[in-house]
Amino acid sequence: MFSFADQIGIMSEVYEIEITTNATDFPVEKKYAAAISLNDLKRKLELIVGTTADSMKIHLFDSDDQPKGELTDGAKSLKELGVRDGYRIHAIDVTGANEDFKDESMVEKYEMSEDAYDKRTDSVRAWKKKMQGEQGGAPMENEGDTANEEAAKGIKLGDRCEVTVGAQIARRGEIAFVGTTKFKDGLWVGVKYDEPVGKNDGSVAGVRYFECDAKYGGFVRPVDVKVGDYPELSIDEI
């Protein structure tokens, strides 16, 4: 228990915390009072995570991004739970409903005709044409495509791997597919995860690319994959 003087100090103390979620690849920086309870924090995170406080799990990482464990006592303050300035909180929507919005094959996209796109003066294509003219017609490579092509050269079927997309927690599995797909241009890597953290069973939009159980399959870009000696994690390491 904190003394009255300690409680007064906590009430005036503010932490700057990085918030990451399984609903988005983009972290956000937020400031919260050290005295705020975990339950109140969860309610404040509802708009960020896109789910209710009751459907949320909170994992804590220190300033070196080392895991400190799951926060479960909703009545305790952030300070009592060991949260400190500069720490990271990873909020997980346990329903998994928001994962579908990160799967590009599940999102209806606006498509512009080639003619209409060519007429735009504020597009990437228009900028490339301008740059090519200034460089005497020299072609410009798509840096993202080139990076993925290079990364894919070191990935082969059956390799053990670790996948890290944006600020998400790293996930381990086995390479089950490398190549192009019908759901999106470019190179993709199909991963059969060790845990049910994926979005599919190796098929997307009715096309099968590899075999695995439901929620154990996922597709990521080659640059987000590291192959090597990544053994399956034991339960106490997850």
The strand count comes to 12
Task: Count up the domains.
Answer: 2
Helical content, roughly? 10-25%
**Structural class given helices, strands, pairing?**
alpha+beta
Low-confidence stretches: none
N-to-C series of helices and strands: HEEHHEEEHHHEEEEEEE
What is the molecular shape?
A: globular
- Looking at the structure, the CATH topology of the largest domain is Ubiquitin-like (UB roll)
Distance between the termini: 31 Å
Percentage of residues in DSSP E strands: 25-35%
Indicate the CATH architecture of the largest domain.
Roll
Give the CATH level 1 class of the largest domain: Alpha Beta
Q: Work out the helix count.
A: 6
Average residue pLDDT: 81
CATH superfamily of the largest domain: Phosphatidylinositol 3-kinase Catalytic Subunit, Chain A, domain 1
Biggest sheet descriptor: 5 strands, mixed
Report the C-alpha radius of gyration, rounded. 22 Å
Q: How are the strands of the largest sheet arranged?
A: 2-1-5-3-4
Structural description of this entry:
One of its GO terms (cellular component) is cytosol. It is found in: Cytoplasm. There is one protein chain. This protein is an alpha+beta fold and 238 residues long. It has 2 domains: 4-100, Ubiquitin-like (UB roll) (Roll); 141-231, SH3 type barrels (Roll), CATH 2.30.30. It contains 6 helices and 12 strands. The chain has helices spanning 4-12, 38-44, 46-49, 114-119, 124-134, 143-152, and strands spanning 14-21, 28-33, 56-61, 67-71, 88-93, 160-163, 171-180, 187-193, 203-204, 207-208, 217-220, 225-227. The strands form 3 sheets. It has a 5-stranded mixed β-sheet. Strand 1 (14-21) and strand 2 form a beta hairpin.
